[in-house]
Amino acid sequence: MMKHSRMRGYTLLEMIVSVGIFSIVMLIVTGAYLSLLGLDRELRATSSLVTNLSFAVDSMARSIRTGTYYGCGSTGANPSSAGTNGTCDTFSYLDTSLNEKVTYIRKSDGTIGRCTGGGICNSSNAISLTDPNVQIASSGGLTFYVRGVGTSGGNASVQPQVTFTIRGTMVGISNRTTDFSIQTSATQRLIEI
């Protein structure tokens, strides 16, 4: 006598339920993956803006350290005058390696600008140091604090110092804004050299 073994399998209803659950799980996973890709893109863009701003601040501080004749506004970079101490939104000095006047300003488009040469520095002739998506605040966004300028005689060992603050916002890919505030100092290095 032969026994018939009954083969077990999945019913059509079990297969439909399994495929449905699998589809729902895959839809959720795909949505999460696409969200992570969007966040990664936003973080990369913000990181690029932070790097740009950091590079601008570092290059400003480095060039100020090797400069002479610091001054608020356009009074700096003049060997015949001592320059001015004080608080200002425009700063000038004499770049000793290029032997020319350098001025930093906030341009009308909201970026930090750098002018070289002896002419008047304004938004039209300044070269932007920062990305247009890094917007410097219009009021007090770029402020220089200059001190120690014009010391002579027994005070000649006092090194002039410039502290500058930068405030503003960074605009990301999805128009998400991030506020920032940076402060750094640069002390003239010529006495040490």
Characterise the protein shown here:
The model has no long low-confidence stretch (mean pLDDT 85). This protein has 1 helix and 10 strands. The longest helix has 54 residues, at 12-65. A hairpin with a 5-residue loop joins strand 4 (100-106) and strand 5 (112-116). The protein has one domain. The protein starts with 11 loop residues before the first helix and ends in a 6-residue tail after the last strand. It is rod-shaped and about 115 Å long. It is of the alpha+beta class and 193 residues long.
- For the biggest β-sheet, the strand order reads 1-3-4-5-6
Cα Rg: 30 Å
How large a portion of the residues is in β-strands, by DSSP E?
Answer: 25-35%
Strand count, sense and closure of the main sheet? 5 strands, antiparallel
* Structural domain count: 1
Q: What average pLDDT do the residues reach?
A: 85
In helices, the fraction of residues equals 25-40%
Number of helices: 1
Structural category: alpha+beta
Total strand segments: 10
Backbone shape: rod-shaped
Distance between the termini: 108 Å
Q: Name the helix and strand elements from N-terminus to C-terminus, one letter apiece.
A: HEEEEEEEEEE
Uncertain residue segments: none
Write a concise keyword list for the protein shown above:
193 residues; alpha+beta; five-stranded antiparallel beta sheet; 10 strands; 28% helix; 31% strand; rod-shaped
Ordered list of secondary-structure elements with their pairings:
Layout: H1 12-65, E1 67-72, E2 86-88, E3 91-95, E4 100-106, E5 112-116, E6 127-128, E7 134-136, E8 142-147, E9 161-171, E10 177-187
Antiparallel strand pairs: 1-3, 2-8, 3-4, 4-5, 5-6, 7-9, 8-9, 9-10
